[in-house]
Amino acid sequence: MSRQTGRSPLGATTNPDTKLARVREILTDLVKEQQSLDQFLQKISPREWGKATAVEGWSIQDLVSHLAQFEDLVAESVEDGVDPNVTVAEHGSFEAFVASGTAKGAEMRPQDVIEWWRLSRARAMDALWARESSDRVMWLGGECSARLMATYRIMETWAHGLDVWDVMGDEEHPVPETDRLRHIAFLAHRLLPLAFERAGETYAEVRIEVMGPDYAKWSFGPEGAPRIKGPAMQFARLAVQRSTLEACPDLTAEAEPAERALRLVTAYLTP
Fold first, then answer.
1. Spans of all domains in the chain
2. pTM of the shown model
3. How far apart are CA 36 and CA 45, in angstroms?
4. What is the pLDDT of residues 146-204, one digit of tens each?
5. How far lies 136's CA from each of 12, 32, 75, 155, in Å?
6. Whole-angstrom distance, CA of residue 260 vs CA of residue 271
7. How many Å is the Cα radius of gyration of the chain?
8. 136-139 and 207-211 as β-strands: parallel, antiparallel, unpaired?
């Protein structure tokens, strides 16, 4: 079992009311993450939306278009029961599907892309809000829980928001460091077995202990397991592939398999 000091993104009880509250707690944080990025985007002039980001070949406008496209995909899956794998297959490949989203956004004005994202995320939010945390929903590669889907949306919003801040931020507008980082740390720990499986390796338990803002400590994994320790921001950047292990000097691993976990860690459900 995982234990977390401070507020948990999972909760502990199993009655239906509590399971509904758990996913809604995560969705509340998702709204905060989306609003934070939305507000920052309002500070960027339309001519700057074409600036290149760390995502190869993508501008700021492409990033926001991608977020809107995937919120549409979530809504179609959760609300309408449309299998997202079928939707992707209709485009021939995952890459072609993603490209169709950025192409759609490229034909819009920046403000229209924001409105597209706002409408799509509101629809996805409404669909997930009615779900209990353990409800199964269709997603790329297979089913996942509504709780995991909501957490995944926080991660992707944060990751692409990070791309925007890394291009447009400055001392006056630094990357926000909030307690929502705990969701990304949780997700990265939750997906460690999958990361090891993709690498063709056998997973052994690892404990993650990261420090967030205001000295908040978040722990995942059994006590006594080999530990990964360090700042939550560095760990989150590494998990969303916006940094390298060499660029995260404050992250430490006690022993194997923690050392290997730091090399394989990911917050992505799909390869």
1. 16-168, 181-264
2. 0.91
3. 17
4. 999 999 999 999 999 999 999 998 888 889 999 999 999 999 999 999 999 999 999 99
5. 19, 24, 14, 19
6. 18
7. 18
8. unpaired
Tell me the C-alpha distance between 106 and 127, whole Å: 27
Q: Which two tokens stand for residue 28?
A: 């509340």
Q: Which of 220, 67, 90 minimizes the C-alpha distance to 152?
A: 67
Longest dimension (CA), the chain: 54
Residues in contact with 203: Cβ distance below 8 Å, sequence separation at least 6, in sequence order: 192, 193, 195, 196, 197, 257
d(CA 101, CA 29): 25
pLDDT average, residue stretch 93-112:
98
Q: What whole-number distance in Å separates Cα of residue 201 and Cα of residue 139?
A: 25
State which fold the 16-168 domain adopts. Answer: Four Helix Bundle (Hemerythrin (Met), subunit A) (1.20.120)
With CA atoms as reference, report the closest residue to 202 among 253, 245, 259, 257: 257
Is domain 181-264 in CATH 3.30.1370, yes or no?
no
Bridge partners of 211? 217, 231
Q: Which residues contact 218 (CB under 8 A, 6 or more apart)?
A: 4, 5, 6, 181, 182, 185, 186, 208, 209, 210, 211, 212, 232
Query: Which ranges constitute the DSSP H helices of the chain?
Result: 16-41, 60-80, 84-89, 94-106, 110-129, 146-168, 181-190, 192-198, 232-239, 258-264
Q: Residue 74: which of 158, 155, 149 has the closest Cα?
A: 149
